[in-house]
Amino acid sequence: MNWLWAVGGLYLLYAAAMVLAHPKLIYPFGPDVFDAPGWTQAQVTDRAVSIAQWDGTDDVAVLFFMGNGGALAYFTYTLNAHVDAGRTVVAMEYPGGGGIPGKPSEAGLKADALATYDWLASQHDGPIVVHGYSMGTGIAQHVAAERAVFAIILDAPFVKMCELMTKAAWLPACYMPGVQKWNSAALVPQLNAPVLLQHGSADQLIPLRQGARLAALMQAEGLDVDFHAVPGATHSNLAGQPGYRDRIDRFLSDVLK
Q1: Residue 9's pLDDT is what?
Q2: Which of 17, 114, 1, 19 has its CA nearest to residue 63?
Q3: What keywords is this UniProt entry annotated with (predicted)?
Q4: How many CB atoms neighbour CB 222 within 10 A?
Q5: Of 104, 120, 175, 251, which sits with the fewest C-beta atoms within 10 Å of its C-beta?
């Protein structure tokens, strides 16, 4: 019987340690600074949010939120899908990565995103589209739930990040206090814009079934959802797959015509 208490105690210690350590695990940002030609960088809003901006010729502005793996410099394939189409792009940079000082958190990133939207809306008269990749899909949906957007583009989204934590750490992360849960499912009833969702069939970090479940939740709420399972695409190469850009272009053309 004593060994059961010992095992239970060790498990509780492990759980407590993971609560303290999990922000470092879910925000593994890289140091590479974004310095692509033609982009301007600035700090905007009273929160001094760092952004990179491309001024396009189209009426559409895209507010882009990257994933948690690395820095904005690693997302040029996705950014260029909009740049090459002539759209204005504002990409939010995250504190703790890409040479941006600060400490990331779910609450902080979401607050920064709303402030960035408000700044963009004050600068841009045309439609605003939110586009998120991986962790950024949670931020994009948060903005779409709180602000008026014309369309939502989600690449490799999740239903709840804490579900992925549970599988990885063998802990009930969705029920543990102090865990940053990233619950996208809770945002679905607040969305009211058309959604394009692309997810790789070979994605091992966020499995395809996560995107399919999120699409089903959205459809159950009456949202217009265009869901694409991209054959053979992994989590890291989705944006480089044939048809990726074409699907975005068609979707936005249909939504904004």
Answers
A1: 64
A2: 114
A3: Hydrolase
A4: 10
A5: 175
Q: Residue 206 has what pLDDT? A: 96
Structural domains of the chain sorted by starting position, each given as residue range(s) with its CATH number in brackets: 2-29+36-256 (3.40.50.1820)
| Tens digits of residue pLDDT in 59-89 | 999 999 999 877 898 999 999 999 999 999 9
DSSP for the chain, written as a single string = -HHHHHHHHHHHHHHHHHHHHHHHHH--B--PPP--TT-EEEEETTTTEEEEEE--SSS-EEEEE--SSB-GGG-HHHHHHHHTTT-EEEEEPPTTSTT--S---HHHHHHHHHHHHHHHHHH--S-EEEEEETHHHHHHHHHHHHS--SEEEEES--SBHHHHHHHHHTS-GGG-TT----BSGGGGGG--S-EEEEEETT-SSS-HHHHHHHHHHHHHTT--EEEEEETT--TTTGGGSTTHHHHHHHHHHHHH-
**Span between the terminal Cα atoms of the chain, in Å:** 69
Name the one residue in this structure whose structure tokens are 């790789």: 200
